[in-house]
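Example for tutorial group B:
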C-alpha cells in the first residue's frame, strides 16, 4: 500500500501538471493577436497505476501532449482558395487599368475617331477639289492612328509591367519554398509527432503567402511533412525537406521577348509558364500572355481592316489631277498586301503589330491632292471613289477576326463595340470572381478562427479551472505534510 512519501509525489505531479497546463494557457493568451497562431491545448493523462495484490493505486497525473487545435483539411482548402482569390483580384486590377482607355465612348474614343475619319471622306465627296478638306482628311487619319497606337502602347506597357513582376515573384516563391522545406525537416524530426506546434504555425503562414503568389496543391504526408506542387501539377515545389527552384529565362519571339518560367529539378529543366494558373504570378502571366494580348489582337485586326479596305478602293481611284492612280492611302504591314489584305494567312495572329506599323502614306500626307477621291480618270471633280470609301464605315465583312484573310466582321463600329464589350465583360467577370472569392475566404477564415483562434473567455475559464486544480494539489500536499509531521513527532520520540 502506498505510503505518505508516495502521496507527496502524487501531489507534486498534480502541481507540475497544472502549472504546465497553465503555461499553455498563458502562451495562448500572449499570442491572441499573433497572425497565423493556432491555439494549443494541454492534454493531461493519469500516470500508470501501482498494483498491490488486487488493488490498483493511482500515481498522479502527467502532461501528455501539447496539441495544436487545427483542421488540416480546412487549411488545405484555404491554400487553394487563397490562390484563386489573389488571381481573380489581380486579373481584375489588370483589366480595370486599361478599361477606361479602351472603353472610351466619348469624342476621344476609338469609335469616334474612326467615325471622324470616314466622315472626312464623306465631306470630301461633297467638294472633292477642296484642298482644305483633303488636308483635314489626312489629319483625321493621323488622329485615328495616334489613338489606336496610344491604346496599343498602354497595353504594351501593362504587359511589360506584368513581365517585370514575374522575375520578382519567382524570387519570392523560391524564398518561401526554401523556408517551408526547412520547416518540413524540423517537423519530421520532432521528438513526438505533432509536438512542434510553432513550426507548424510558421509553415502554415508561409504556405498562405506562397498560395497568394502562385496556385498550389498541398498534400500532407504521414510524418506531417508538406508536398507542394503547382496547381496544374506541372512541377513540384516542395517535397519533404527538398525545395525545387523556379527560374526565369528569356522567352523569345513566342512570348514577345518576355520571361519564361521554368522548374529546375536536378538536371531537368521544364517550361511551366503555361502551367501556372492562379495566385499573383498566374494572374500576371495570364494578363501578359492572354488577356492583354487579346485586346491588342482586336486592335490589330481593326487597324488591318480599316487600312486594307481603304487601300483596296484607294488604289483604283484617281488623285486631284485626274491622272495619278495606284497609290495606297495607308502604309504598314497587312495594309499593303494584295487586294488590300494578304492572300494567305497562316494564323489568327497574322496582323500582330499592325497598329504600330500603320501610318498614312508619306506621299499622301505631304501632298493631300494625291487622295484618290475620283473614280474616273481625267474627271477632276469626280467624287465616286470618295463616296465609296466613306461607305466603308457601314459596310459588313470589313474586319478579319479569324486570320483567314477574309473579312468576317463589320461594320467597324461592331468591331469596336466588340472590343469595348470584351473589356467590360472581362472586368465585370473578374470583379465578380474577386468579390466571390473574398467572401469565400472571409467565411473560411472565420471558420478557421473558430477552430484554431484564441478565445479569451475560454482561456479565462481554463485558467480558473487549472488554478483550482493547482490549489487543490497544494492543499493535498499540505495535508500530507501535516500527517508526516504528526507521524514523526508522535512516533519519533
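The residue assignment follows.
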Amino acid at each position: 500500500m502506498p505510503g505518505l512519501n508516495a502521496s507527496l509525489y502524487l501531489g507534486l505531479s498534480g502541481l507540475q501538471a497544472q502549472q504546465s497546463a497553465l503555461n499553455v494557457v498563458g502562451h495562448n493568451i500572449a499570442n491572441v493577436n499573433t497572425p497565423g497562431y493556432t491555439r494549443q491545448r494541454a492534454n493531461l493523462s493519469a500516470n500508470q497505476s501501482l498494483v498491490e495484490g488486487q488493488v490498483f493505486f493511482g500515481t498522479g497525473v502527467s502532461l501528455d501532449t501539447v496539441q495544436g487545435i487545427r483542421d488540416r483539411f480546412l487549411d488545405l482548402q484555404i491554400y487553394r482558395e487563397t490562390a484563386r482569390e489573389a488571381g481573380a483580384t489581380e486579373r481584375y486590377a489588370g483589366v480595370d487599368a486599361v478599361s477606361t482607355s479602351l472603353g472610351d465612348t466619348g469624342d476621344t474614343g476609338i469609335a469616334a475617331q474612326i467615325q471622324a475619319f470616314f466622315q472626312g471622306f464623306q465631306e470630301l465627296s461633297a467638294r472633292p477639289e477642296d484642298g482644305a478638306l483633303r488636308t483635314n482628311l489626312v489629319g483625321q487619319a493621323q488622329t485615328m492612328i495616334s489613338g489606336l497606337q496610344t491604346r496599343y502602347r498602354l497595353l504594351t506597357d501593362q504587359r511589360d509591367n506584368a513581365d517585370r513582376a514575374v522575375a520578382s515573384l519567382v524570387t519570392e516563391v523560391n524564398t518561401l519554398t526554401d523556408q517551408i522545406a526547412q520547416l518540413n525537416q524540423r517537423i519530421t524530426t520532432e521528438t513526438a509527432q505533432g509536438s512542434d506546434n510553432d513550426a507548424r504555425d510558421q509553415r502554415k503562414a508561409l504556405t498562405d503567402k506562397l498560395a497568394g503568389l502562385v496556385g498550389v496543391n498541398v498534400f500532407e504526408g504521414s510524418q506531417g511533412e508538406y508536398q507542394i506542387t503547382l496547381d496544374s501539377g506541372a512541377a513540384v515545389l516542395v517535397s519533404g525537406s527538398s525545395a525545387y527552384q523556379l527560374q526565369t529565362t528569356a522567352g523569345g519571339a513566342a512570348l514577345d521577348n518576355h520571361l519564361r518560367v521554368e522548374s529546375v529539378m536536378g538536371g531537368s529543366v521544364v517550361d511551366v509558364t503555361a502551367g501556372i494558373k492562379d495566385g499573383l504570378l498566374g494572374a500576371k502571366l495570364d494578363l501578359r500572355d492572354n488577356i492583354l494580348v487579346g485586346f491588342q489582337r482586336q486592335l490589330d485586326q481593326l487597324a488591318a481592316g480599316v487600312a486594307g479596305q481603304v487601300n483596296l478602293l484607294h488604289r483604283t481611284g484617281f488623285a486631284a489631277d485626274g491622272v495619278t492612280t495606284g497609290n495606297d492611302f495607308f502604309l504598314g504591314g497587312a495594309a499593303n498586301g494584295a487586294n488590300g489584305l494578304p492572300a494567305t494567312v497562316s494564323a489568327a495572329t497574322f496582323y500582330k503589330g499592325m497598329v504600330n506599323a500603320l501610318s498614312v502614306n508619306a506621299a499622301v500626307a505631304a501632298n493631300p491632292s494625291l487622295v484618290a477621291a475620283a473614280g474616273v480618270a481625267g474627271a477632276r471633280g469626280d467624287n465616286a471613289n470618295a463616296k465609296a470609301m466613306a461607305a466603308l464605315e457601314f459596310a459588313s465583312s470589313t474586319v478579319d477576326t479569324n486570320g483567314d484573310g477574309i473579312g468576317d466582321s463589320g461594320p467597324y463600329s461592331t468591331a469596336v463595340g466588340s472590343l469595348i464589350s470584351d473589356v467590360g465583360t472581362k472586368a465585370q467577370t473578374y470583379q465578380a470572381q474577386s468579390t466571390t472569392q473574398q467572401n469565400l475566404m472571409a467565411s473560411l477564415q472565420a471558420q478557421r478562427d473558430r477552430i484554431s483562434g484564441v478565445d479569451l473567455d475560454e482561456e479565462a475559464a481554463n485558467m480558473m479551472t487549472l488554478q483550482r486544480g493547482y490549489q487543490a494539489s497544494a492543499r493535498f500536499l499540505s495535508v500530507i505534510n501535516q500527517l508526516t509531521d504528526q507521524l514523526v513527532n508522535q512516533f519519533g520520540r
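The longest helix spans residues 131-188. Compare this with the pattern of hydrophobic and polar residues in the output above.
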